[in-house]
Amino acid sequence: MLLHIPGLFSREEVQRIREALLQTDWADGKITAGYQSAKAKHNLQLPEGHPLAKEIGAAMIDRLWQNPLFMSAALPHKVFPPLVNCYTGGGSFDFHIDNAVRQPKGSPERVRTDLSATLFFSNPEDYDGGELVIQDTYGVQQIKFPAGDMVLYPGTSLHKVNAVTRGARFASFFWTQSLVREDSQRTLLFEMDTAIQQLTRDVPDHPALIQLTGTYHNLLRRWVEV
Ligand code: NI
Prior knowledge:
Fe cation binds at residues 96, 98, 159. Residues 78-178 form the Fe2OG dioxygenase domain. The chain has six helices and 16 strands. The protein has 226 residues and is an alpha+beta fold. The strands form three sheets. Strands 1, 2, 4, 5, 6, 10, 11, 14 and 16 form a nine-stranded antiparallel sheet that branches. It is globular, with a radius of gyration of 18 Å. The structure holds nickel (II) ion. Nickel (II) ion is lined by residues 96, 98, 159.
């Protein structure tokens, strides 16, 4: 499942983030790429543990944990600290699949990359190219969302970033290990939860809601890994 999560940051907030990013020092994006994907990756990145990346990452996690859409769709167990990148001057990242397991620098904990996410800090009109192209079960999707919006997609997907031929594309990306490993199971639970939420708004006193909510939790209990 590919999901658009709008408005995690306001226009003013992403503006402040962009201004800070314009004034900082960047490193070659190959620093976090695996051996194979390093050959495909041409962009800039803030080094892991960079104070600005940490600050932006903490603000993002804070927002995400309060976002019902993210919580329901990702069922997050743990998150790899968000990284921040910049594509400019023809920079691109060819088709690849992300590494299955990630270990944050200086941490003993490893994160299985069930879900990938990209949060856009630049507005689509500020750069040409730079689409995130994702091959999922429904075909090829070209993603270029407004600044402040995020896309969430299965870590198993083949994806690339088209060359940025004008301007700069700032974004953050991160991985989530879900309580439910399989995308198909997470999708079922997300659709069921969405329907329950809608019924709770429309017919809050209907007795079947208790049964449906119970069934949701019993399915989750069957599939959850903690
Ligand atoms: Ni990737």
